[in-house]
Specification:
Elements lengths: L1 H14 L3 E4 L19 E4 L5 E4 L3 E5 L6 E5 L4 E6 L2 E10 L2 E12 L4 E6 L5 H10 L2 E6 L4 E5 L6 H6 L4 E11 L2
Parallel strand pairs: 1-11
Antiparallel strand pairs: 2-3, 2-12, 3-4, 4-5, 6-7, 7-8, 8-9, 9-12, 10-11
């Protein structure tokens, strides 16, 4: 039951109209990777036995319960960066005809046997307030479909953001097959 609740929360965050967004891929002033590192590559299962395939240039998330993500390639709209042994996946979104970025953290655990996925939960008012203390919120964005909270942290803020666990762990993927 607990896993079902986490799965529903994860889906709501991905499809939620209330999101934390950034003006550029995070962390700022960190070079984008051109390939997905070998430690992340492989096939994984989540708690619902949904499958995550991570390849050298792309990934797919196959699920019967929710919308699948098929063949999401690294590009100018899907950017992967690294900082402190964590990987930041940034997905470009367009809100009111302007470009913003959603950011997720992938943390390899046990030498890549697991990947923990973290995201910013705008419903967690304590963490949202803490994020505002670390790096001021630039503005709220409304577009008729939901609310977005725009932040522009500097690279130096990330040590504090990570140590204060501003990102919330949403799901764990367990590796079932190494990369091919």
């Amino acid at each position: 039951m607990k896993n079902l609740i986490y799965g529903v929360i994860f889906l709501l965050l991905i499809t939620s109209c209330d999101q934390v967004v950034f003006q550029e891929p995070q962390p700022r002033k960190t070079k984008a990777l051109t390939e997905i590192p070998e430690i992340l590559q492989g096939t994984y299962l989540d708690h619902n036995d949904d499958t995550l395939h991570i390849y050298k240039q792309s990934f797919s998330y196959l699920t019967d319960e929710y919308s699948s993500i098929e063949e999401e390639c690294l590009s100018d709209s899907s950017v992967l960066k690294t900082y402190k042994d964590m990987f930041f996946f940034n997905k470009r979104v367009i809100i009111n005809e302007e470009i913003y970025w959603l950011t997720y953290i992938l943390e390899p655990v046990e030498s890549g046997k697991r990947i923990d996925l973290y995201t910013m939960d705008p419903g967690d008012v304590v963490k949202l307030a803490r994020l505002q203390e670390i790096t001021s919120k630039v503005k709220d964005i409304e577009n008729g479909e939901g609310s977005y909270y725009l932040f522009t942290p500097r690279k130096k803020h990330y040590k504090k953001i990570i140590s204060d666990t501003i990102f919330t762990k949403m799901i764990t993927f367990k590796k079932i097959e190494p990369r091919k």
